[in-house]
Design brief:
Two copies of one chain form a homodimer.
Chain A: E1 5-16, E2 19-27, E3 33-41, E4 45-52, E5 57-62, E6 71-73, E7 75-78, H1 85-97, E8 99-100, E9 103-113, E10 117-131, E11 143-148, H2 150-158, H3 165-177
């Protein structure tokens, strides 16, 4: 299967470091050309499923501007400019939760919008997380730290209580990574 | 926990039915005001994890403009205006794959960007899918229909072969929904 080609790209709107919109002229493998293809540039980010030494998952309950009511949430945040995703994940875990971990497993990178960009999420499983008392979150939102059992995370995923795509993804992939021997 | 308030909203860029950008003035529960909050309006969509009567998962291998190389993909597509998400899911399954199913389970709705909108994905598990020969996809991309075993889907998820956030989410949640009795 052949990739589509970008024939040209032009910035058509710039809001802030959180959003730039480009228009692309793209060519399909069969030769057809689309001259109005929107492309969103938003920051890349990390999410972390952190598992404590006694087998509990470090999560939040929080509110966010884009969701109705409270949601369960995974640890995560935007990459700083030129920051390595794994380093960002380690930084976000300690900043947001005060936990540190030494055993990190990469769970993949995922494009947010298959056709129109909108950044990439890098996902990690951090095993052996322990509270080192170094929390200093700069998040704007109220949030409550939770330590959930595997059964609680599974039940919450089934009930749709992780209301944001990336949070459901990271927790479901982490549960899957942790059950290799069972299935 | 208190929600943030939208004090005003203004359209600042309109590309097409696929993207409108608004600027919001928002107020935090503590009274602080942000007057440059970007909000993306993009179409809502459905994704479907369809399981055939003989226990295989209906997926694709395809290319998309926003991802590098080929990816495994879940069935899905945009909602039509005012379309019910379940009806859209049933429509997309038959249009894209030629399969129909009678047993539908809702796996939740998920905001794409927790803080800045970008649509909502509605996810479904369709059990008992069977080929009724009615495929008539209008997708622009080349795609190859695949019937994968549970073990193949798990291995692909672990290897990051579903390269788009929504596709990894729907497949991971569907595997989780199908293993209730095991864990």
């Amino acid at each position: 299967m052949l990739p589509w080609k970008t024939l040209s790209r032009q910035t058509v709107y710039h809001h802030s470091k959180y959003l730039t919109v480009e228009n692309h002229v793209v060519q399909l493998p069969d030769g057809r050309i689309f001259d109005q293809w929107n492309w969103m540039i938003t920051p890349d980010y990390v999410n972390i499923a952190a598992l404590t030494e006694d087998g509990r998952w470090v999560c939040f309950r929080q509110v966010k501007y884009g969701i109705e009511g409270e949601s369960l949430a995974a640890v995560g945040g935007y990459l700083e400019p030129d920051e390595d995703p794994l380093e960002a994940a380690k930084r976000e875990l300690v900043e947001e939760t005060g936990y540190r971990a030494d055993d990190w497993t990469y769970l993949g990178k995922y494009r947010v919008d298959a056709s129109h960009g909108a950044g990439t999420g890098y996902f990690y499983l951090a095993r052996g997380a322990r509270d080192v008392g170094a929390q200093h979150s700069d998040d704007l939102e109220e949030q409550e730290l939770l330590l959930l059992s595997r059964a609680e995370v599974e039940a919450a995923l089934r009930a749709g209580e992780f209301k944001v795509l990336a949070w459901a993804t990271i927790m479901a992939l982490a549960l899957l990574a942790e059950q290799k021997e069972i299935v």
